[in-house]
Amino acid sequence: MNKGTINVQSDNIFPIIKKFLYSEHDIFLRELVSNAVDATQKLKTLVQKGELTEEIKFEDLAVEVVIDKENKQLRISDQGVGMTAEEVERYINQIAFSGAREFLEKYKDDAATIIGHFGLGFYSAFMVADLVEIQTKSWQEDALPVHWKCAGNPEYEMQTGTRSTRGTDIILHLNEDSQEFLDPVHIKNLLQKYCKFLPVTIRFEDKTINNTQPAWTKKPSELTDEDYKNFYKELYPNSLDEPLFWIHLNVDFPFKLTGILYFPKFRNNFEVKKDKIGLYCNQVFVTDNVENIVPDYLTLLHGVIDSPDIPLNVSRSYLQGDRRVKQISEHISKKVAAKLEEIFKNKREEFEQKWDYLAVFVKYGMLSDEKFAEKAKKFALLENIADKYFTIEEYTEHIKAAQTDKNGKVVALYTSNRSEQDAYIQAATEKDYDVLLMENVIDTHFVAYLDQSDDNLVLKRVDADIVEQLIEKDETPETILNEAQQNIVKDVFGKLLGENTMAQVEIKAMLPTASPIIIVKPEFMRRMRDMSMYNGTDPQFMMPETYQVVVNGNHPLINKMLLQDDTKQRDIAQQLYDLALLQQNMLKGTALTNFIKRSVGLVG
Ligand code: ADP
Ligand code: MG
């Protein structure tokens, strides 16, 4: 028997492993199973190179995970290359690892992601085991089996082992805190999480856990639409939806990247889960958190990215600045934009049908990534209240004739809530103006984006002004009220508003058939407020909502009001004002109750 001390360059690694990896104990299984898979793959390579001439059926070389409840043991066995005594000495005893403590302190939050990339994989066994044994026999002729044993301290024992066939058993004597790994349900779940797509068969309780040839590893030409949809189901068995489209990624140079990204049906809000892209490294599941690896809006996609070239041996926060990660994410953005453009160009009808599901994603992308926006401008769609779809360019062309103002700017009108702003929409439609639907949360930002991105295009919500002035033309209609009458009107409404400093009274010349009073919310102020609301500003510090009470100087009721005494004037003004508030969904509480009582009285 041979005793020795594990050679760790800077420090004893065991307390460090135990201390920092407490939250991610599960990954020991991924590490040991992937070592077993590596060993099996190495055997394949040896055969391919002709270094091993034996006839081997690779389908039969499964990795097996076995629970021994009675002895509180977990065993991972493979039929791979195995290790000679010399190799155990080299690969297990000498942990070529300097500054282990420093490393783990620096990266403790990312430890689960990167541990396997630091050659620390095998030692993660000590997170869950008091004692670890290796029984191994190398593929090399005449190699003696080796038995290695270590109790979680730098001392180990090595002697001739008992394994009679090529391969390796890793035997874990689970510690008191890790008895959950004796539960077959738990082990099965972990295997399904980490090992679902490993390239060598993984067996547990006589069942195969994995699909060794997941769709992304195949050539696109070998796959049908049905195959892609089935793979989506395999990834998300609980999803009721089919994906809208998909992209098969396949790059060899200057980085290696494969994968399939799916466009799910993005629902009309941001309740989208952002953990739907699995990051794999040679079919080993690494994480479902791709933050900082792909731009934020792309995390809304689903699917798989497999790349050995994503440098996971650095902390997450450094990833964003990494040149290769940048290249990878630019490549993905480009592919995504190209795919959407292709469908838009070749299958416009289908694209329009799916637009409602895609809009959030495309808009989010445009708002957050300039390069993507540049491409998406060609296919991003605007929908109007007649449910017609236009590109930005098509739309500008469509409304140009009727909606160019006196300064030569094209004014696009939109509604953020079709039913609440119905009266304003009707007024605009009567004037032959078109109205866009911008009802999504993200549209607050998208409207501002459209406004800024084109000097000749202005966006205004339908209730931003009276319809006569939404799009300023040269003609200035006359009001029939003289100055004295105007002063009386202002006075009556001024008193009505009293202390309310958020509202302003204005008299404007409108059609006699338009409403007597209209409440408008000027675009700029309202947009500022919307933004601060969206950005989560505390309501008590938020800009108060300001609005204008526009009195239609040409409405017969206003004329009639002027002929009445003070009390009657006030009553008429109150009723008309309440109606206007009601139209804007602003009449609430006691004011609403009083209004209803008063109105019932009027009917009687
Ligand atoms: P890594 O897998 O990153 O090299 P590990 O700590 O996981 O680091 O493993 C260290 C080394 O031990 C491996 O590179 C391999 O040479 C050897 N090894 C571990 N497990 C096995 C196994 N099941 N069969 C053969 N060799 C193994
Ligand atoms: Mg490993």
Give a written overview of the molecule:
The chain folds into four domains: about 1-210, Heat Shock Protein 90; about 215-345, Ribosomal Protein S5, domain 2 (2-Layer Sandwich); about 380-470, 3-Layer(aba) Sandwich (Rossmann fold), CATH 3.40.50; about 485-520 and about 535-604, Heat shock protein 90, C-terminal domain (Four Helix Bundle (Hemerythrin (Met), subunit A)). It is of the alpha/beta class and about 600 residues long. The strands form six sheets. It has a nine-stranded mixed beta sheet with strand order 1-8-7-6-9-4-3-10-11, covered by helices on one side. Strands 12-13-16-14-15 form a five-stranded mixed beta sheet, sandwiched between helices. It contains 20 helices and 24 strands. The termini are far apart. It is about 40% helix and about 20% strand. Strand 7 (about 145-150) and strand 8 form a beta hairpin. The protein binds adenosine-5'-diphosphate and magnesium ion. Magnesium ion (MG) binds near residues 31, 34, 35, 116 and 121.
Break the fold down into its secondary structure elements and pairings.
Layout: E1 2-5, E2 7-8, H1 13-20, H2 27-48, E3 63-68, E4 73-78, H3 85-93, E5 94-95, H4 100-107, H5 111-114, E6 129-137, E7 146-150, E8 155-160, E9 167-174, H6 184-194, E10 202-204, E11 207-208, H7 225-235, E12 245-251, E13 257-263, E14 277-281, E15 284-287, E16 302-306, H8 316-319, H9 323-346, H10 348-368, H11 370-376, E17 381-383, E18 389-391, H12 392-399, E19 410-415, H13 422-430, E20 435-437, H14 443-453, E21 457-461, H15 467-470, H16 483-497, E22 503-508, E23 517-520, H17 523-534, E24 547-552, H18 556-562, H19 566-583, H20 589-603
Parallel strand pairs: 2-5, 3-10, 14-16, 19-20, 19-21, 22-24
Antiparallel strand pairs: 1-8, 3-4, 4-9, 6-7, 6-9, 7-8, 10-11, 12-13, 13-16, 14-15, 17-18, 23-24
Helix pairs in contact: 1-4, 9-10, 9-11, 10-11, 10-14
Bound molecules: adenosine-5'-diphosphate (ADP) and magnesium ion (MG).
